[in-house]
Each structure stands twice: as C-alpha cells, then as structure tokens.
Amino acid sequence: MTLRVFRIPDFDFGEYAQLKKNPVSIISDDCWGGLIYHYLGLRFESPFINFFITYGDYLKMVSDLEFYMSKPMVKERDGTALSFTMGSLGEGNKKIYLNFNHAYTFEDAKADFDRRRERIHMNNLFVKMAYGWGGYSENVVHEFDKLLYEKKIFLTSFKVGSRTEVKYDGFVEGSIRKSLQETYQVTPYDFRQYELSPSLLGREFNIIHLLVTGEIVKKHKMGGDLP
Hints:
Elements: H1 13-21, E1 25-28, H2 32-40, H3 55-62, H4 65-69, E2 74-77, E3 85-89, E4 96-100, H5 106-117, E5 125-130, H6 138-145, E6 152-155, H7 174-183, H8 188-195, H9 198-204, H10 207-213
Parallel strand pairs: 1-5, 5-6
Antiparallel strand pairs: 2-3, 3-4
Helix pairs in contact: 1-10
C-alpha cells in the first residue's frame, strides 16, 4: 500500500483492507480498470488493462465471461503508426476483438493478458462500462442493465430514461460541471478525460466503497439535467 491512498477522499481503512484481503477483478471496456488499480495502489487482478473494446463486443463478452476467459488469445495484427495491436477471443459469430493501445506487439499484449487472466476472481467481479466516443444509444445502457452482475456501473454524461428504471444515470463534476452550467453541453472528449481520472471520479462517489459493495454513494446532487 502506498501512502497516497490515505489522501483519497473519504478513505476508509476497513473497506480498503477488505479490497486487499478479497481482491476484486475489474472488468472494463477501456483503461479504466488499470487506472483504478493504480490509483488505489492495488495489483492488477484483471487482464483488462491498457486496452479498449467496442461496445458490441464488450456486451457480448460480459454476457458470457467464463466462456471468453477460457479461450486462447489469437493474433489479429501488431501495432503500427496507424493502427493498434489487436487480438481476438472466440470464433465465428462469437468472436470478439480486443485493441491493445499501449502494446507495440501482439506477443507483449498476449503475455500480459494471459498472466493477468490467471488472477481473475470470478466470485468477486466489478463490471464497468462507459459512454463512448461514438455515442451510445439508451438501448446499450438498458442491455448493460440486464446483465446479472452484483456489482456494476455504467458511466455516462447524459441522463438515461427514468432514474427508477435505469440506476446507472449520468454524472458531472468539476470542470465539466462548470462547462455544462455555462454552455449546456459536454463533448465526448471532455467526458472521456473525466471518466479516466480516478481523482475526479473520487469527487463524485466513493470509489473504494463502490468496489467493495457495488453501491453508488453520490456525494452531492447533479448540478442540473443534461441535454
């Protein structure tokens, strides 16, 4: 444990000790999981580090995670100046593609992925998905909501349907909240920068409590509805 974790807002040593004793495997559609582990000073307990996946493939994967974690990673291509290193899991209509945007070669990406997938705790998963660059429809959020995981969250910069119907509604804070108050809009770029910053997310809700319990305890009300 590094000393910086004591500076995390609302740090609770008891809950942090639970994370150390009973590690959680973060299943994420992008680099979010790795950033959270680093922020909390925890070992990577998931292979989904330094990568991203399209929302269609991600929903397919988390709908049958044990199947995909049992399949060998197959090379699609090495990285170039114009494209990311890519691997795949499964075959035929069950095939999904993983983009390793921090690995120069497939061999490096596969070695890291295979080593970390051995650490997955299938009895203690936290599943995260977020609004993407292309803009997800509400149907994607509803499909995610149907997934039978005890602990999960969908992060989005827009309000989704009824709060009683979909509990993974949007959030804004800090510079994005200010931007919304002044211009009533938030760009996908702004949101992505916010989503991938654990220190900013920590202003919105208690990250450690979220990972331990799956409960989203917001620290304040939103500053207004998003368009």
